[in-house]
Amino acid sequence: MINRVKGLGMRAFLVGAILALAGLVTASVVMAPGPAGAQDAEIVPLKIGYFDIEDDIRYIRAFVYARIPAVPRFRPIPGAQQGILDAQSTGIFLGLDFELVPFRGVDADALIAELFRQRDDEGISFFLVDAETHVIEALTEATKDLDILLFNVNNFSDSLRIENCASHLMHTAPSYNMLMDALTQYLIFQDWTRLLVLKGPLEDDAAMVTALERSAKRNGASIIDIRDFVLSNDPREREQNNIRLMTSGRRDYDVVFIADTDGEFGRYVPYQSVRPRPVVGTTGLVAESWQWTFERHGAPQLNGRFFRSADRFMTGPDWAAWAAVKAITQASIRAESKEFEAISAVIRNEELKMDTYKGFQSDFRPWNNQLRQNLLVSVNNAVIARAPIDKFEHAINDLDTLGIDEPENKCVF
Q1: Which domains are seen in the chain, by residue range?
Q2: Where residue 17 falls among pLDDT bands split at 50, 70, 90?
């Protein structure tokens, strides 16, 4: 738990300078020092809730041969904690404090009960949520008439941004549509336009392929075939588990796209396809919101701070949790308030313009509450490109070439 920090007196001109350097307000902002008694009083922190599920299937370690985890996944709460640390480094000069209040429940009902307790007993109105789609939907339904903002930090489902969107559900995690747009933009840039798709049996695999089909049509790629694979050694299913058979055929292709969110099948595809072709999707070249090797726009500093506090590299979900905390705390500082209405008004304002260490200023799309952000096209140890790719331009904001743009929006709050 983050220690609370007592307020420090500070000359007005110094406070303004610190705020300007932090990029939170303009250099012209000046705050007058409070009375001595107020400076000595204990500061009441702005508390932010953090919810996840105890036995979330996404984090169950399915081990394969030699006790190797098929898909190493980490809960992103360290990203939220880093966001608190970063906010306090500024808040200390302003007499502000921030605190994360985590809760891990057994199911959606447990999260809902705790949310009401935190709201009533601790005055918490902002909650980060790391959960599957049905849990997030239950939370949004239970809180739809309340002064509450929920932040989805690790769910890519497009349904949460379209038919199941909610006015009080914000998204710092990218959607599958955004991820696929970033990847197809790069493929088009490379003139790799013909895609052979190998699709897994999971719901998320199907959701990824649906997003890919939309993105390919939008950006000018073509899918020559979609072939389902199964995780099996059964010789009767050779056409669905043999990589050489699955990548053969008369029709040529430029890349093999793998939709395998579980990660066990896809890891064997590189270098085993019949044709020597790049592998992209969930294996090989991927699109993600963060990569620990990114070297521009202050990213090494954020990666370094995170590594020192979490003892591991920062992942995309970590970044999304960090960005959610930054949006809340930065809005509080700009509004000079801890009140829900004042903070939420700043968050929803497209003038938020939050620095996310990726080179673009981020804010939330008003039509579906998705955080505008550029994405990184990368391999496991290097960033290959940053999307949106230069040739993909937008009349208003190039970031809106990634994901659902306003003219195609079907979210109704």
Answers
A1: 12-174+291-373 (3.40.50.2300), 177-288 (3.40.50.2300)
A2: very low
